[in-house]
Design a protein that fits this description.
Elements lengths: L1 H17 L3 E7 L18 H8 L2 E3 L2 E2 L5 H10 L30 H7 L3 E7 L17 E5 L11 E2 L2 E2 L1 E3 L2 E2 L6 H19 L5 E6 L11 H10 L5 H26 L6 E7 L23 H4 L3 E4 L7 E3 L3 E2 L3 H8 L14 H6 L9 E6 L2 H4 L3 E7 L2 E5 L7 E4 L15 H19 L8
Parallel strand pairs: 1-10, 1-11, 2-13, 3-14, 4-5, 4-10
Antiparallel strand pairs: 2-12, 5-8, 6-7, 8-9, 11-12, 15-16, 16-17, 17-18
Helix pairs in contact: 5-7, 6-7
C-alpha cells in the first residue's frame, strides 16, 4: 500500500511538472532600442535575435523599470517597483558610491518557482549585492555561475576594481576567455546537464550577459569583420556593433542547445534589455530622445520579445509592458497565481490569446545616483496614458510631454497644461511617498 501511494504520488508530480513550461529570461546590458536589425539598425547584423523575435511576439512599447542596471534587475526578479525592494539606484562595490540594498524580505522569482517544482539557475551578471544575504543562492537560485559584481573592467580579466567576483555558487573561479563566450558556454553546459539528468522537471534559467556594457571590448575577429563589411563606419560604432553581434552569436548557441536537448518546444523565453543604449559609446536608441541614464524614452524603451513554441503566435505588439511584468507572467505560466502585493501585472493572456484586458495603470520610473552630478538624489518619470511627467535629473525642473503628439519629447507642456501637470504631479508624489518608507542601505 505504501509503495502504491508513493508510485501514485510520483505519477501526479510527474504529470504536474510536465504541464509546466521551462522559463528562460535572457537580459542584455545596455542594448539600445535601435541596436538590433529587427528594430531598424542598418549597420548591424543580429540574425539569431532577429529569428527569435520573428518566432514569437516582439514588443514595440516595452519599458525598462529604470535607465540603469541594478534597479531594473531588482524589479524583474521581484515583480515590484525597484525602490520598494530597496534598490532605487546602482548597487556598487564601493560603499561610498552604493545606492541600493536588496531587501532581505523581498520574494524573488526563483523562490516562487522552486515551490512550483522548478530547478533554478542564474548565469552571468548578478549586480544585486555582494554579501551572503544578497547572493543568488540565498535568493532562490539552486545554481549560480557568473559575475557577482556590476560591470567588468575588462572582458578578459573579469575583475572590478581589482576584486574577484567570478563564482560557481559561492566559490571563486578563474575562467579563461571573453566574458560573453564564458557565459554562453556555462549556459549551454547547464542546459546539457539538465537534459542528461532529467528532461521532465521544469527549469527556470536567468541568463544575464554583461554585453554590450562598457568597456566596449569585442573580440578582435568580430571587430575586423564589422570594419570590413560596413563601409564608412566609425571605429567607436564598429566596436559596439561587434560586441552586440558577438552576443547575438552566443544567444544563438543557447537557443541551439535548447533545441538539441529537446527543451525548446516546452520553453517560454523572454528577451529584454535592462535599459537604453549608452550614446557616448555609439549606442543607438532609435528615433527616441536620450539614452542610458535618461528618463526620456531612449533611456527606458527597450527591445523585448516573448517566445513559446506552439503557444505564442508570431507577430508584433504595441502593448505597453514593464520589466517587472515578467515576474507575474512567468508565475502564471507556471500554473500558479502571482499573488497579492506585486506591482507587475501578468500579460500571459496577450501571449496565449493575443488579447490583454487590463485596468489602466500609472507607470513610475525611479533612479537614485551619486557623484557630483546627482549627489545621491533621485530622478523620476511617470506615464499615464499618452502623458509623461519627467524629472531627468535632480538638478533639472519637471517637464510634461504628450507622447502621442510629441514622441520625441521636444515640447515641454508643464507651463501651458498646468492642470494636467498638477494632476500627474499628485500621483507622482504619492508614489514617492511609498518608496520613501523602504530602506535602501544595509542597516548597521
Amino acid at each position: 500500500m505504501r509503495l502504491l501511494t508513493c508510485f501514485l504520488l510520483f505519477l501526479t508530480v510527474s504529470s504536474w511538472a510536465a504541464d509546466k513550461p521551462n522559463i528562460v529570461v535572457i537580459v542584455a546590458d545596455d542594448l539600445g532600442y535601435g541596436d538590433l536589425s529587427c528594430y531598424g539598425a542598418t549597420d548591424l547584423k543580429s540574425p539569431h535575435l532577429d529569428a527569435l523575435m520573428a518566432s514569437g511576439l516582439r514588443f514595440t512599447e516595452f519599458y525598462a523599470n529604470c535607465p540603469v542596471c541594478s534597479p531594473t534587475r531588482a524589479a524583474l526578479l521581484s515583480g515590484r517597483y525597484q525602490e520598494l525592494v530597496g534598490v532605487p539606484g546602482v548597487i556598487r562595490t564601493k560603499p561610498e558610491d552604493n545606492w541600493g540594498y536588496l531587501s532581505p524580505g523581498a520574494t524573488m522569482l526563483p523562490q516562487v518557482l522552486k515551490k512550483q517544482g522548478y530547478s533554478t539557475a542564474a548565469v552571468g551578471k548578478w549586480h544585486l549585492g555582494l554579501d551572503d544575504e544578497a547572493h543568488p543562492n540565498t535568493r532562490g537560485f539552486d545554481h549560480f555561475h557568473g559575475f557577482l559584481g556590476d560591470m567588468m573592467d575588462d572582458y578578459y580579466h573579469h575583475r572590478r576594481h581589482d576584486q574577484h567576483y567570478m563564482r560557481l555558487n559561492k566559490e571563486k573561479v578563474n575562467p579563461k576567455g571573453h566574458a560573453t563566450d564564458i557565459f554562453t558556454t556555462w549556459t549551454v553546459d547547464h542546459l546539457d546537464a539538465l537534459a542528461q539528468k532529467d528532461n521532465e522537471t521544469p527549469f527556470f534559467l536567468y541568463l544575464a550577459y554583461n554585453a554590450p556594457h562598457t568597456p566596449i571590448q569585442p573580440p578582435q575577429d568580430w571587430l575586423e569583420k564589422v570594419m570590413a563589411r560596413e563601409e564608412g563606419i566609425t571605429l567607436k560604432r564598429a566596436k559596439l556593433v561587434a560586441l552586440i553581434e558577438h552576443m547575438d552569436d552566443g544567444i544563438g548557441k543557447v537557443i541551439a542547445a535548447l533545441k538539441k536537448n529537446k527543451q525548446w518546444e516546452k520553453t517560454l523565453l523572454f528577451f529584454v534589455s535592462d535599459n537604453g543604449g549608452q550614446l557616448n559609446v555609439g549606442g543607438n536608441c532609435g528615433n527616441l530622445r536620450g539614452g542610458k541614464q535618461d528618463m526620456y524614452e531612449g533611456g527606458l524603451k527597450v527591445p523585448a520579445c516573448a517566445v513559446w513554441p506552439g503557444v505564442i503566435k508570431p507577430g508584433t505588439t504595441d502593448f505597453t509592458a514593464l520589466t517587472m511584468d515578467i515576474f507575474p507572467t512567468a508565475i502564471e505560466a507556471s500554473g500558479s497565481q502571482p499573488g497579492s502585493g506585486l506591482d507587475g501585472r501578468s500579460f500571459l493572456s496577450l501571449l496565449k490569446n493575443g488579447i490583454q484586458v487590463t485596468e489602466k495603470r500609472d507607470l513610475f520610473f525611479t533612479r537614485r545616483e551619486g557623484n557630483l552630478r546627482y549627489m545621491g538624489e533621485v530622478s523620476w518619470a511617470m506615464k499615464r496614458g499618452p502623458w509623461k511627467l519627467v524629472k531627468n535629473s535632480p538638478m533639472e525642473p519637471w517637464e510634461l510631454f504628450n507622447l502621442e503628439e510629441d514622441p520625441l519629447e521636444a515640447s515641454d507642456l508643464s507651463k501651458t497644461r498646468g492642470q494636467k501637470f498638477r494632476v500627474l504631479a499628485a500621483g507622482m508624489r504619492a508614489h514617492i511617498q511609498r518608496g520613501g518608507a523602504i530602506p535602501w542601505q544595509k542597516p548597521e
